[in-house]
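Retry 2 of 3 after timeout on previous attempt. Resubmitting structure tokens to design endpoint.
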């Protein structure tokens, strides 16, 4: 743990069917074995699955386009972090760096995870998120 957050790995994408509906979840696991499941839409789940598997795609997905566009202007992805839970939804940020200056940018959680995976950058979950999942405010 450092800076009030824990590094996590993407343990896979889970597909669940119930009552004729299919739901997708991205499984995140920290070093202590704590599991956090992030709900994902079908397209987001496919994007994370492809990024996780390292699959080479004919054409870039949105995450690849974003990374290439940022790189063209000398901006690098530092990391992704789930920083809060608001109204039952995870809130995430991408940390970007250009010329030694870092900025946090609000992002959909699934997008942040996919971008970090494609860029080979770490993913974190803030301690406050774990506290809220455990029943804290």
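Retry 2 succeeded. Sequence:
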């Amino acid at each position: 743990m450092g800076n009030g957050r824990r590094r996590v790995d993407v343990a896979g994408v889970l597909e669940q069917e119930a009552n004729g509906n299919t739901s997708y979840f991205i499984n995140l696991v920290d070093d202590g074995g704590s599991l956090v499941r992030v709900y994902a839409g079908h397209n987001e789940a496919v994007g994370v699955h492809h990024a996780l598997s390292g699959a080479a795609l004919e054409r870039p997905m949105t995450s690849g386009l974003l990374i290439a566009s940022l790189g063209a202007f000398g901006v690098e992805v530092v990391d992704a972090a789930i920083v809060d839970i608001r109204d039952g939804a995870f809130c995430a940020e991408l940390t970007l760096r250009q010329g030694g200056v870092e900025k946090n940018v609000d992002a959909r959680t699934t997008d942040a995870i996919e971008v970090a995976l494609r860029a080979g950058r770490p993913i974190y979950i803030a301690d406050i998120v774990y506290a809220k999942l455990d029943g804290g405010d």
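Attempt log closed. The first helix runs from residue 42 to 53.
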